[in-house]
Write a structure and sequence with these properties.
With 439 residues, the chain is α+β, with helices and mostly antiparallel strands. It folds into 2 domains: 249 residues, FAD/NAD(P)-binding domain; 170 residues, no CATH class. The strands form 5 sheets. The chain has a 6-stranded antiparallel barrel. Helix 3 packs across helix 13. The radius of gyration is 26 Å and the shape is elongated. Bound molecules: flavin-adenine dinucleotide. The site of flavin-adenine dinucleotide has 39 residues, from helix 1, strand 2, helix 2, helix 6 and helix 13.
């Protein structure tokens, strides 16, 4: 029986340990927090959206094309649901999003912990892994106070997102020390900070809409690409990404699921020194002309209404006031006196609301990171390092991230399962040859 050491007791590490054990290995998890699976408890607002019925390559993003999809195709949503059901996690599906029926992320963690205990997986909590030394045969895993020896190592130490749950970026340092290139990790699934001073006045508003991210350098000239736009200063901005849903306006900028979904694109453009703009459409169901027509009829129906009351019933009051200000409309103007130029300005403010994105929120507030260990140095069939034979990777430490909706956990389960299986299969062959143990 070979010995597999899993560094990191998060979602991917626990799955790797279970899988390695199913495939005949003796397994030890090394976790530097006082308990395993801390991040899992905060997933899905404490409800754990653990996978999604909608699956395709576009949900798994990296600098390396379809790398992740090859792994997800080996152990995907169906296999994940079947395994969790076997572990006792009865699923509840809402619009394709899977949660435990209990509605509690803690029950997913409990099910994993019970399985680890049943399989006899060794769990060394409160143990920081500070180095991985490849030996002639197997590895020496250096801990803050001691060491472990094993045949294979699965590095599942996560990213830099939400470091208080344990993922402090040390996985990247361990990978670098082993010769791997790490693509700069950047916060993703995160809020965006914006430059304008009006946010304090509209903070707390939640509104349905579309948010689109554009980027460009200051001097970029118009190239005429159809989705690109000119910003207020007449500079061209490249379209990067767009999403629709409930946008939350905060004291510092914008948040909410659609903002999270596009944040990875803003993060990269900002990192590369580009100017980033978010353009929001707060009435996506109407075209510009449609909204103009609706506003004109509204003005005609109650011409005596003051401009400050004109939009009441359509949008939240705080936004109405801001839109009037941005459109240069005086609050006391009668609706019937609004010129078509004024109405067009209002339509622009509602449907082409532009804001300058200056930063993402910190890693601490991000749900995941884009970037990580470059997957071009990792075997897409087995997740084994192409630089250090016997070293495997799982989870977010790799350059793979997905949108909200259960895709990041699906990546953790898929990569954990495959890495654990491959490590165990190869460990058992080699331990017969060499004989290994723990000290
Ligand atoms: C608030 C929040 C909500 C989320 N909600 C969802 C959701 O609903 N659905 C979804 O799909 N995804 C969600 N995610 C993302 C998802 O949780 C992560 O993508 C996933 O947990 C990553 O798993 P991982 O095993 O790669 O890393 P982690 O879960 O971060 O685990 C890494 C582990 O390694 C340990 N470790 C790190 N370095 C060392 C070291 N040197 N020595 C020993 N141990 C070490 C850490 O303590 C940690 O336990 C959410 C994330 C957050 C922060």
């Amino acid at each position: 029986m070979g010995h597999v050491i899993v560094i990191g007791g998060g979602a991917s590490g626990m799955m790797a340990a279970i899988s390695a054990s199913y495939h005949g290995a003796e397994v030890t998890i090394v976790e530097h927090m006082e308990r395993i699976g801390k991040k899992l408890l905060s997933t899905g607002n404490g409800k754990c959206n653990f996978t999604n019925a909608r699956q395709s390559p576009e949900f798994y993003l990296s600098e390396n094309g379809h790398f992740a999809w090859k792994i997800v195709s080996r152990f995907g949503q169906k296999e994940t649901c079947a395994l969790f059901q076997e572990l006792g996690v009865y699923p509840k599906e809402r619009n394709g999003y899977y949660y435990p029926y209990s509605g509690q992320a803690s029950s997913v963690l409990d099910a994993l912990r019970m399985e680890l205990a049943r399989l006899g997986v060794g769990i060394r909590t409160g143990q920081e892994c500070v180095g991985v030394i490849p030996k002639k045969s197997g590895f020496c895993v250096k801990l803050a106070d001691g060491e472990l020896v094993g045949d294979k190592v699965v590095l599942a130490a996560g990213s830099k997102a939400a470091a208080k749950t344990g993922s402090d970026g040390s996985g990247y340092r361990l990978a670098k020390a082993l010769g791997h290139h790490v693509i700069t990790p950047l916060p993703a699934l995160v809020q965006l900070k914006c430059a304008e001073d009006f946010y304090k006045g509209i903070a707390g508003v939640r509104i349905q809409g579309t948010v689109s991210i554009y980027a460009g350098s200051r001097n970029e000239t118009k190239k005429g690409l159809c989705q690109n736009v000119l910003d207020k200063g007449g500079r061209e901005k490249r379209f990067l990404a767009s999403d629709q849903g409930e946008i939350q306006l905060t004291t510092y900028g914008i948040s909410g699921i659609p903002v999270f979904q596009v944040s990875r694109y803003a993060a990269k453009a900002l990192h590369e020194g580009e100017n980033v703009m978010a353009r929001m459409d707060f009435m996506p169901e109407l075209s510009q002309e449609g909204l103009l027509d609706a506003l004109a009829r509204r003005a005609l129906a109650r011409p005596q209404k003051k401009a400050e009351d004109f939009l009441t019933g359509m949008f939240p009051g705080k936004l109405n006031a801001l839109w009037l200000r941005l459109s240069g409309i005086e609050r006391m103007t009668a609706a019937g006196a609004l010129s078509s130029t004024a109405l067009r300005a209002l339509v622009r403010a509602i449907k082409q609301f532009e804001t300058r994105v200056v930063a993402t929120n910190s890693y601490g507030q991000a749900q995941v990171c884009r970037g990580g260990v470059d997957t071009r140095e990792v075997d897409a069939g087995t997740l084994e390092s192409q630089k250090v034979p016997g070293l495997y990777f799982a989870g977010e430490v790799l350059d793979v991230d997905g949108p909200c909706g259960g895709y990041n956990l699906q990546w953790a389960w898929s990569s954990g399962y495959v890495a654990g299986k491959e490590a165990a299969n190869h460990a058992s062959c080699e331990s017969v040859k060499h004989g290994t143990g723990m000290r």
